[in-house]
Fold:
Amino acid sequence: MKALGQTETVNAQVLAALRTAVITGELAPGTLHSVQTLATQLGVSRTPVREALIKLAQQGMVRFERNRGVRVLQTSLHDLEEVFALRLLLEPAAVRRAVTRMDESTRKELRKLFAAMQKAAKADDEFTMLGHDRRFHRVVLEASGNTRLATYVDGLRDMVLRRGVSTARESRSLDDIVTEHAEILALIEAGDADGAAEAMRVHVQHTAELLIAQEAGAGTGVLDIDLGWTNPA
Structure:
């Protein structure tokens, strides 16, 4: 990690730097780090580092160990199941509310993000497409009026990224992912709150089933995938 300059946005910079280091594996799973060492490496004081680590601990990315420091946690298959169970509980309900509150400027932003997803998929640019995918979900969740929920779900996605896995190219194509978002967007545009919520539920559950089956196959090969209980209907 590179040293950061002391600016008024230092807290946000520290959080982003540490989050990225954990997701990319620069701070490897299982490793132990002191707040002071991380602060020295980033060129900042201990306070913003500690505050950032507290937020990462709340997201399940690190754990404070008394008199030892902070340990980077490994994401397990069980963690993935819990992440998607939570997303299935939260996202469909948030989408239903978002459709009833959404203004034209937000719908316009979603159209732009979807167009960007299509363009990236056509260019076979997975990294860019998934970035637009993430932003699409974030905009929808923020439109529900619950910023904390949007931030929380965004953090759940980090746990999947930390495992370094994706269904893109492994279990489905980029075009398949775009198609699922096309249905969500069409129902949002139509003002169909229940339909959009159901489309989001189907999308998230499909992602969960593909990803967990994919990871189970790479590991022990034994995993009971049952996320149907999260259907809000």
Q: What stands out?
A: The two ends are 46 Å apart (CA to CA). The mean pLDDT is 85. Residues 77-230 form a domain with the Four Helix Bundle (Hemerythrin (Met), subunit A) fold (CATH 1.20.120.530). The chain has nine helices and three strands.
